[in-house]
Design goal:
It contains seven helices and no strands. With 143 residues, the chain is mainly α. The longest helix is centred in the middle third of the chain and has 31 residues.
Length: 143
């Protein structure tokens, strides 16, 4: 494979976005392991900050999505979904980072991290593909 040509066809921003989202998704999956295993020490103390983070995401989404051409219900539904999704994802990612730093042997030693990175990369690709093709899923053809 010609890596020089591949780097020319994939813009740096896209590569950075894919890498960043994959890292967040991987950390979120580790966060789920931490919560399910009961090893997420101190999560209750961080919970108010997670709620604040979700509220900030709500305000930013509402500000960005509000448009005179779109009805208010659609904007509020989209804003709520974005806020809950981003708040949950980042909260789980933070819990995953805390768990991974406190128990690296449970993540790296079991090779669980490799599976989570692979799953995160697949979810990133599906998410980016869905964002590019969302109109195909929302159009209704009655014929």
């Amino acid at each position: 494979m010609n890596w020089g040509r591949a780097s020319e066809t994939i813009p740096g921003r896209i590569f950075g976005a894919v890498a960043g989202v994959t890292v967040v998704l991987t950390a979120s999956m580790v966060g789920v392991v931490a919560l399910v295993s009961g090893k997420a020490g101190g999560a209750g103390g961080r919970f108010p900050y997670y709620v604040l983070l979700t509220a900030i995401a709500f305000v930013i989404s509402l500000w960005k999505l509000d448009d005179e051409t779109v009805d208010g219900t659609t904007v509020l539904i989209a804003t709520s979904g974005i806020a809950i999704g981003s708040g949950s994802l980042v909260s789980l990612a933070i819990e995953g980072i805390v768990f991974g730093s406190q128990h690296p042997d449970r993540i790296v030693g079991s090779r669980l991290l490799v599976y989570f990175v692979a799953a995160g990369l697949i979810c990133t690709a599906l998410g980016m593909w869905s964002l590019r093709h969302w109109r195909e899923f929302t159009m209704y053809d009655s014929s």
